[in-house]
Design brief:
Elements (H helix, E strand, L loop, with lengths): L1 E2 L6 H10 L14 E2 L4 H7 L4 E5 L13 E2 L8 E3 H9 L6 E5 L16 H17 L8 E4 L26 E4 L13 E2 H11 L7 H4 L3 H5 L42 H4 L8 H14 L7 H21 L4 H31 L1
Parallel strand pairs: 1-9, 2-4, 3-5, 3-6
Antiparallel strand pairs: 7-8
Helix pairs in contact: 1-5, 9-10, 9-11, 10-11
């Protein structure tokens, strides 16, 4: 039951993974909008804890979406390519907290987005994990594999509403560590904020934000057994099978259980949305009927104008519902323009008579 931080696009989610709160923007091209001193990276710097941001095929520039942070250019020495990551591993000098990104560099072939091969991305991830397992860093490492937001069209589980922007869709979280419980299914409600909470907990830092404090870090800690470490499992073509045999007998019998929580629509309802579909249907029905009965043109125009006004207002004032209202904005705008042209032509003819 792991959720993305924001019910929205990629950049807001990736930024929330760094700040511990949902950003105020709702696009993938925001720049210089959040002070760097509001990030987990700044908190680490202030407490003398090393961190690094490693990007596949790094070009030397500020990797997206780190440009969203004001003052990020002063921390360019923390950005590296994956070659540097490998060197740090072998030298036993990896930063205490590291982000490894297969996106945002010059080449995104391993980011698992269309049209790239998902298997190629999985192979590259396994290669990076194998390098960590072979390194001296392994016995003090936990790897969290996450995704920025959901890529599907449906999930029977409604994301819990903790604020005006989320949580977002349910996504995978894989925990790889010598101390991770084998075959464990974590039934606690966790999110990207929980991973920030794990950093604060592990290095005894104050909670970065209230969202981080309330993200159930204890639920995440249940996925670990620090009394025994397990040897690494190096994946290679000779042992890459599914499922991989367990290292120890497992008697958990754990089953994924979803605890129902109030969703966004019930916590932050938007009643105006309920009338948009009827308005659009009525408007287009009147528009088509007006080809035979011209006196219906004004009624179609009025219905579509009201739909356009309501959907445009909700779209501009409530970003979460923009996914729903943008369809009505476009459809009612198209219908409104068509009915406006028809009305002008027809009433010009009436005036000429």
């Amino acid at each position: 039951n792991y959720y993305s931080p924001v019910l929205g696009l990629t950049e807001p989610n990736r930024v929330a993974y760094m700040t511990g709160f949902p950003p105020s923007f709702y696009s993938d091209d925001a720049c210089n909008v959040i002070p760097f001193n509001e990030t987990i990276m700044y908190q680490l710097c202030e407490n003398n804890i090393s961190w690094g941001y490693f990007v596949y095929d790094y070009s030397g520039c500020i990797p997206w979406p780190m440009g969203a942070f004001i003052g990020i250019q002063n921390y360019m020495n923390h950005f590296h390519g994956l070659t540097a990551f490998q060197e740090y591993l072998q030298n036993n000098s990896l930063p205490a907290v590291s982000w490894v990104m297969l996106i945002n560099g010059y080449d995104d072939r391993y980011d698992m987005h269309p049209p790239y091969n998902v298997t190629a991305g999985a192979v590259e991830i396994s290669r990076i994990i194998n390098e960590v397992m072979r390194s001296p860093e392994w016995n003090s490492t936990v790897i969290f594999i996450t995704f920025d937001e959901g890529g599907g069209y449906f999930d029977q589980i409604v994301p819990p509403a903790i604020n005006h922007y989320g949580l977002g869709q349910r996504i995978p979280l894989l925990i790889i560590s010598p101390y991770a419980k084998e075959a464990w299914i974590d039934n606690y409600t966790l999110s990207g904020y929980t991973l920030l909470g794990f950093i604060d907990y592990n290095w005894h830092l104050p909670w970065l934000t209230k969202c981080v404090e309330n993200s159930d870090v204890q639920g995440l800690l249940c996925a670990f057994n620090f009394s025994r470490d397990r040897p690494p499992i190096i994946l290679c073509p000779n042992n890459w099978t599914y499922p991989i045999p367990l290292q120890y007998p497992v008697h958990y019998g754990y089953i994924a259980v979803v605890h129902p929580l109030p969703g966004y629509a019930s916590v932050y309802p938007e009643p105006a949305i309920q009338i948009l579909l009827p308005l659009d249907l009525i408007g287009f029905a009147l528009l088509f009927a007006s080809f035979k009965k011209r006196n219906l043109t004004l009624y179609a125009l009025l219905s579509l104008l009201v739909s356009l006004g309501i959907s445009g207002y909700v779209y501009s004032t409530n970003s979460i519902y923009s996914f729903v209202t943008d369809y009505f904005v476009y459809s009612s705008l198209i219908g409104f323009l068509i009915s406006s042209v028809l009305a002008l032509k027809r009433y010009k003819n009436v005036l000429r008579r």
